[in-house]
Design goal:
- The chain is mainly β.
- It contains one helix and 32 strands.
- A hairpin with a 4-residue loop joins strand 14 and strand 15.
- The protein is elongated and about 120 Å long.
- The termini are far apart.
- It is found in: Cell membrane.
Length: 360
């Protein structure tokens, strides 16, 4: 029954695999090393798309390689690293690739590892085989993982630090016996130069890489539907933040807005002087940097109408006490803005004929 279960397990690895291509199950070339020497076993993952994870079977299922300070499986390359080979490491190694979204798996070809008979490897300083790039662009809010592992005899110790001396915040996690550092919710203050220090009694080696911060654009201020009168001036602002700083462009009715004397863009704001009816339309403000593009849409309605007192009529009668102050309001709705004059008994009054208020 156990044998049948093992066969079913292996068939599930090499059956229908979605985005992972099937690997031909055949033995790879034997890898021969001295006891005490370090070794790298290559996974050679099949063509795939989407996120994958890696593990290694030792000899046969269910015996998986257990990672420790001497053995490391890179989730970047899939390779297995053994810092210092011991007699117990002799056997067959098979890389297992798992398509994370679908949990489908595929087996690589087994790689035999044997010990040479021409002596034992002496002690040597750490040789870093797994290191992160010199520059690692990291998105705001993402989880950043850096790997570092060295071969060496004795087995090297691994430590991490920031070169500016800034202590690690509590959110940073060291995993895989210090072979991986994980930075969740990456923020601008997490950017900087990081060092992985590997050392043993024979020496020390260091790997360095800079984490750079970037952020896709996101809106700080959206545009909203707006109504304006002909001959008015428009200042329509949209603002976005991002790293690097976003640039802006505008569309009207789906077409790029042509900039001219009375139509300009300043720091993302659309400025139109002396509006006319043809300026009406659906506008889009577009903010973008090399990491993303966002859109904000709104309707601009330019109107023209004769003065209308229907919504704000003047009172026909105001009763006042002798010697008190009278306030009269004249606020017609009009596009463009109406010129206001005041009369008393049919005769003009006041030099300032544009004020909507009168005080007597």
């Amino acid at each position: 029954m156990l044998l049948l279960w093992k066969q079913m397990f292996l068939l599930s690895f090499v059956g229908c695999l979605g985005d992972l291509d099937n690997s031909k199950i055949k033995m790879r070339s034997t890898v021969s090393v001295r006891e005490g020497q370090g070794v790298v076993l290559l996974c050679g993952p099949p063509t795939h798309s989407g996120e994958v994870s890696y593990a290694w079977i030792f000899n046969e299922y269910p015996s998986f390689v257990q990672e420790d300070n001497r053995r490391f499986v890179s989730q970047e390359t899939g390779h297995l690293y053994i810092a210092k080979v011991e007699p117990s490491d002799v056997g067959n190694y098979t890389c297992v690739v798992t398509n994370t979204p679908t949990n489908t798996k595929v087996l690589g070809s087994p790689t035999p590892l044997v010990l040479r008979t021409d002596g034992v490897m002496g002690e040597y300083e750490p040789k870093i085989e797994v290191q992160f790039p010199e520059t690692v662009p990291s998105a705001k809010g993402s989880t950043v993982r850096l790997e570092c592992f060295a071969l060496g005899n004795p087995v090297p110790r691994i430590n991490w630090r920031r070169t500016d001396g800034t202590p690690f915040p509590s959110k940073i996690i060291l995993k895989k016996f210090n072979g991986m550092i994980e930075i969740p919710n990456f923020q601008q203050e997490d950017a900087g130069l990081y060092e992985c220090i590997t050392e043993n009694s024979r020496g020390k080696n260091v790997a360095r890489g800079r984490l750079t911060y970037y952020a896709k654009p996101h809106w700080v201020q959206l545009i909203k539907d707006f109504e304006a009168a002909v001959e008015d001036n428009l200042y329509w602002e949209c603002r976005a933040s991002g790293k690097p700083k976003p640039s802006y462009r505008w569309l009207r009715n789906g077409e790029p807005l042509t900039l001219e004397g009375r139509i300009q863009i300043e720091n993302g704001a659309l400025i139109i002087t002396n509006l006319n009816l043809s300026d009406s339309g659906i506008y889009q403000c577009i903010a973008e940097n090399k990491h993303g593009t966002i859109y904000s849409s709104a309707d601009l309605r330019v109107v023209a109408s004769a003065p209308d007192f229907s919504k704000s009529p003047m009172k026909k009668l105001i009763q006042l006490l002798m010697g008190s102050t009278a306030h009269f309001e004249c606020k017609p709705r009009a596009s463009p803005k109406a010129t206001i004059t005041w009369k008393k008994g049919g005769f003009g009054m006041f030099d300032d004929s544009y004020s909507p208020w009168r005080t007597l």
